[in-house]
């Protein structure tokens, strides 16, 4: 009789073809004697990552590939992989070979013995407290991210944004509908979404250098993480994407006011300056939202142009309200900046609702 699978190792991937073989070889060595499976969740990598996984899966029934088309994001990939598992325990590990796979048996032993509900591989515990595999900039960023996470979680965890952990599957299933599919900090989201704090154990490991491929971390990930932090601070009342859209809108307000000031300084009439500022801010908002807020649905090529035309058309009513409100306020006050701000804010609600449905 075939042994029941005890552990599913979820591996989110995007352009990690060259790391697939070495990672599977490591898992075979580390988990020898354990009934396990590896679920690679690939975001339709253009480098052929999914094909590499499927080639390995043809020879090993423990290897599975979930190829996502039209969806992007590490957090969503982790949740989909965990929900596809029937094993009582789920581990999450990156494909870049920076996590210490030899720690997996110890993590599993802790969970099976009932010593914890969640075991985290920490980059910041002694004797590996420096996270040497990170660049100085990323190391500083990780420490800031951890500090923010601890304030929200109110938990004594050294690495609440770790990408290497093992957890009881039922804990993920219980909160899956509340988890964000955006960003990289899925562990923080899982902990923060639990109705009662899980029992957490941390184990130290040496964070290694990436072996192949390129890191996916960039400024957009940091912005997404801040949005997730704000969502948890509001008790999940406001979704991260709305907060992201709002932050982009705030940047658009800065653009709007700068262009309006420049127009007035150049001697243009308020009406011309306001129209120019509104159109410039709208264009800026579209491009940033397409790159950051809707990065998992990002429009490219001709779709970027047609999306912009739809965005402009849908924001037309907001633009009309913007100009009308701004001029109305300007007629009753000598503060041009107040009139400009009032106009810019007037169409914000319409812009978010309409474009989220029809553009992205």
Kindly estimate the percentage of residues that lie in beta strands according to DSSP.
5-15%
Number of strands: 7
> Oligomerization state of this entry?
single chain
- Average pLDDT, all residues: 85
* Broad structural category: alpha/beta
Task: Please explain how this structure is put together.
The chain has 14 helices and 7 strands. Strands 3-2-1-4-6-5-7 form a 7-stranded mixed sheet. The protein is an alpha/beta fold. Helix 2 links the parallel strand 2 and strand 3.
Considering the chains and any ligands shown, give keywords for the structure.
360 residues, alpha/beta, 14 helices, 54% helix
Helix and strand topology:
Layout: E1 7-13, H1 17-30, E2 36-42, H2 49-57, E3 63-67, H3 74-83, E4 89-92, H4 104-112, E5 118-122, H5 136-153, E6 165-168, H6 169-175, H7 186-193, E7 200-204, H8 219-233, H9 240-265, H10 270-293, H11 301-314, H12 316-332, H13 336-346, H14 348-358
Helix pairs in contact: 1-2, 5-8, 8-9, 9-10, 9-13, 10-11, 10-12, 12-13
Gist of the model:
By secondary structure, the chain is of the alpha/beta class. The chain contains 14 helices and 7 strands.
